[in-house]
Each structure stands twice: as C-alpha cells, then as structure tokens.
C-alpha cells in the first residue's frame, strides 16, 4: 500500500475526531463563545464591586426616601410625604439656588485658573523636566487634609488676621473687613482652593496632546495669539475642560463641611440639609434630599456630556 493510501484514512479519522474545526482551528461560533465568556469573566469582579458598593447603597437610599418617620423612629412604608415636604418648602428652593450659585462661581473661577495654569505649563515651559516639577508643585497642597487646608484660611481672613492687618497697615482700609470670613466670599475662596487642581489636571493633559505643528501652521497663516487661542487651543481642549467641569461641579454640589466651617454655620446648601436631617435621625428626609440632589447632578453631568464628546479624551 502506498504512503498516500495510508495518509488518507488518518486525515479522515482526524477530521472526524475533531468536529466543528477546520485545519485544527476552532469554529467561528466556538471562538465567539470563548471570547464572550472571557470578557464577561474579566468584567464580573468589577461589576460585583460596583454593584455592592455603588448601586446597592443608592438603591437603599431611594427605598428609604419613601419611608415614614416620627420624632424618635422610622418605619417602612411607601409614602411621598418626604418629597412633598421637601419640594413644598420655600427654604429648599433658596438653599438649592445657593448651592447652584456656589457651584457656578467655583466652576467659572477654577476654569479660568485651571486653563491659565495649564496653558502656561504647556506653551511657556519648554523643558519637560520643569513642566513635571511645576506640575508637582501644584499638588503640594494636596499632601495635607482638605479640612486642614480649608481651616488654614480662618487665621488669614479673620478680623485680626493677616489680610486685614496688612491692608490696615498699608492704609488701604481703616477698619477690618467683616466679609472676608464667614461669608459667601470665604466659602467660594475655599472651594476654589480645594478644587482648582481637579480642573488643572485634565486641561493640562489635553493641552499636552495638542500637536505643536498646528500652532505653527496657524501662526504661519497670519493668526495672532488670540486667534490661535480661540480657534485652535480652546476647541482642542474642550474634552479636558469638560472633564474638569464635571469633577468640580459634582464635588461642590455634594460638599457640606466647607460651607459649614467657612460660613460659620450661617450659610446652608443641600449638603447641609442632608447633614441636619441625619443629625436629627430623620433618615427618610435625608434620603429624599439626597435623591433630589443626585438627580440634579446627573442632569447637569448629562447636559455637559451632550455638549462635548469626552470619549476623545478617555
């Protein structure tokens, strides 16, 4: 028997023993199932962690927001009393507007500061080493606690603080400025100090990706510095600006400790309402306020995501 005659039965036996394969390779359907199972297996741990630590607490807050409460206890129910009291109170709307005002002021100031700092580091510092050094210099305040950084403004802005004493010694004012501390100014200043870096980082990251040849081409075409800024730099930095805006707005909307300390407990925001309800053991009311605040923040983030496609940055 020839070698060809012996090889043919072996090939037929091999093909019969491995059904659904071609030339030793798995079938397309089997590869798809294998890849899909691998993807789900890789994503399962992260999904479980997010579901347990993020989705489950939010679902619990939503459920508790419909419960009832008395002066000494809470009880399971499905009532809308908490939302009716919250949305029917004029205090809620005034506090809500106050929260939005802080968010807008902080966002506008941090956007200007963050863009300016990132622009300087990117286009005026040509050494990569110095860019890294100066960028790390911006992170030095974050080596300490937020509360320490915030409280450090109190002796500086107080009635007998460094700011008032310096202005009086220079003859700029005759008496201390009362609005420097425990006011909307001090709250906004603390917010800007705490959250400016959250705006600097994404904008700086976006600017570093801009091709310098685009700047040179615009300059060769006769564009001046302002035209280059408005027509080249800012449009290319929109994803980073939007990421920073999301960080700043969400952090300010949910902050309560800064408002408490820097206003001397004279100004309220939505976070303070939640804190007060919790201190009074009115957990359903606090949960209802949290749900309203969460929905508001999600709407604001959704609007910002509609304006700019941040997937280019991610």
UniProtKB/TrEMBL annotation:
The chain crosses the membrane at residues 40-67, 102-121, 133-157, 177-204, 282-308. Residues 1-24 are annotated as: Disordered. It holds the Pfam family BPD_transp_1. PROSITE patterns: ABC_TM1. Residues 96-304 form the ABC transmembrane type-1 domain. One of its GO terms (biological process) is transmembrane transport. It is a multi-pass membrane protein. GO terms for cellular component: plasma membrane. Keywords: Cell membrane, Membrane, Transmembrane, Transmembrane helix, Transport. It comes from the Bacteria. Residues 1-18 have a biased composition (Polar residues). It is found in: Cell membrane. Belongs to the binding-protein-dependent transport system permease family. CysTW subfamily. PANTHER family: INNER MEMBRANE ABC TRANSPORTER PERMEASE PROTEIN YDCU-RELATED, INNER MEMBRANE ABC TRANSPORTER PERMEASE PROTEIN YDCU-RELATED-RELATED. This is ABC transporter permease.
